[in-house]
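Field reference: "sequence" (input) and "structure" (output). Example, Transposase Tc1-like domain-containing protein:
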Amino acid sequence: MESSVSLHFPVVSALWGETQKHQGLATPWAGDVVTNSGTILAADEIIRKNRRITTREIAVELSIRKGTAHRIIHKKLGYGKICAHWVSKHLSENQKIARGGLDTSATQEFLH
């Protein structure tokens, strides 16, 4: 039985068949073949060297898709970005009081 994709898009289906042979994938939605311990360790090492690196830069460096890089970073390694704007929600009351005593004139230009 042919899939609906091959019935409606025979050229795309034929091209996908060739791609499958070269990449060893059964379908475009087959699991991430690159999410292995080596890739995860490499991503962790890259992040530890540069905490300001982006998901896209990691994906390019490891030659993986951006979604795969995102999944490795957030699900496998448990990393997350914290935007400075959201930090105050994560501070304890003592930290908020200590932060309140800081000179706010330096940050006023960024708030407006």
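The chain is about 60% helix and 0% strand.
Residues 37-82 form one domain.
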